[in-house]
Amino acid sequence: MAIAKAERLMNLALCLLGTRRPLSKRELRSSIEAYLEAFGPGNGGGAGTGAALRSGAVTSGGDESFNRMFERDKEDLRELGLIIETVDMLDGDTGYLARRDSNRLPAITLDAAEAAALGLAAKVWQQARLAGAASGALQKLRAAGMPLADADPYESPGALEPRIAAHEAAFEPLMLAARDRRPVVFDYRKSNAARPEQRHVEPWTLEFCRGHWYLAGWDRDRGAERVFRLSRITGKVRSRAAAFTAPVPDHVTVRETVESWAGENATATARIKLRAGHGYPLRAKALTTHALTDGWDELEVPYGHGLDAWLVEFGPDVIVLEPAELRADVIERLRAVAKG
Fold it and tell me: Among 69, 178, 287, 303, which residue is least crowded by beta carbons within 10 Å?
């Protein structure tokens, strides 16, 4: 059904773009095979052909069904960006056409820095699906005369090339759902939970931060914005054919949220013991580090919201010394995991 609709929309768009004069609904109905097969040519359309005529379905009800489908198709094309004009014709009918000059994209101009940035961005993706799209886009820009080939400083074999991997199975379905504005359902295991729980989310954006992919969106169950780490999503991501219930904000604070979990916005400090040779992300954030004699190091780290959840991820390699409330929170989280 999805393929049939896409083909019907494509044929309607080509018909509207290819005409030199406005076409009425009746003319479009008799010119596009999908309409003809489903509803016949309509009144005044000549001898009937197609499945609808063979079944005797060319009635006033068929005309109403065609009108509803045509209006939906027209609005779908407009949402996709096609500019469709309506014209009052001499016979009193309404005509439709899409002028080529109104639907032609303006010329693309990039300076050397912008071209280099696009070339760098295209090299980031590892996934075959995204790599193909990025490569095709660069080829089109080069064919249009953009200075990508000469201005790309990353072509030499010895140059460092950035890579952002997305190994989580949830990445692609969430990316598509965020693009298409479709709600999703998935099972999510929090760091302090023994078992995952189902979440109903309206996905807004995906962002890579601190070596992990995160999803930001509207959690319908909690009625609030939430951020989810993709590596904690278990099972399949299932999309739903429904509209969003919450507005999508212009700016989503994924990075700020993740940094607050890690104590980036902390106003206090905590003392922890960290096993020697372990916990390098913690060491990178440490304010002071002192080597102990028993194979452990003592660190002073920023203490803010979410630090307990981050420390639990290091398991037996971390011992909280103070403050007491942080130590209690970490022990509580560990006990919750142990109960599972």
Answer: 287
Look at the alpha carbons of 11, 13, 18, 22 in this order and tell me if their dihedral is positive or negative.
positive
Read off the DSSP letter of residue 164. B
Residue 140 · residue 153 · CB < 8 Å? no
Sheet holding 94-97, edge to edge: 23-24, 94-97, 85-88
Q: Which residues contact 1 (CB under 8 A, 6 or more apart)?
A: none
Site of tokens 């307990």 = 308
Contacts of 279 (CB under 8 A, 6+ apart): 314, 317, 318
- Using DSSP's 3-state secondary structure scheme, residue 61 falls into helix
For residue range 44-102, list pLDDT tens digits in order.
Answer: 544 444 444 444 444 455 788 899 999 999 998 988 888 999 999 888 889 999 998 88
Q: Give the DSSP H/E element, type plus range, for residue 225.
A: strand 224-229
CB of 298 within 8 A of CB of 283?
A: no
**DSSP class of residue 100?**
T
Residues 289-313 pLDDT 10s: 999 988 999 999 988 767 787 888 8
Residue of 294, 280, 300, 120 lying closest to 211 (CA atoms): 280
- The candidate with the shortest Cα–Cα distance to 227, out of 203, 197, 244, is 203
Tallying the residues shown for the chain, one arrives at 340
**Which residues, other chains included, contact 313 with Cβ-Cβ below 8 Å and sequence gap of 6+?**
191
Local structure of 296: helix, strand or coil: strand
- The one-letter code for the residue type at 310 is W
State the pLDDT at residue 157.
Answer: 47
Chain mean position to CA 50: 40
Distance between CA 23 and CA 89 in Å, rounded?
Answer: 9
Strand-pair category, 197-209 with 212-219: antiparallel
Please write the tens of the pLDDT for every residue from 184-219: 999 998 765 668 899 999 999 888 876 678 888 999
Q: How many CA atoms lie within 13 A of 5 on its CB side?
A: 9
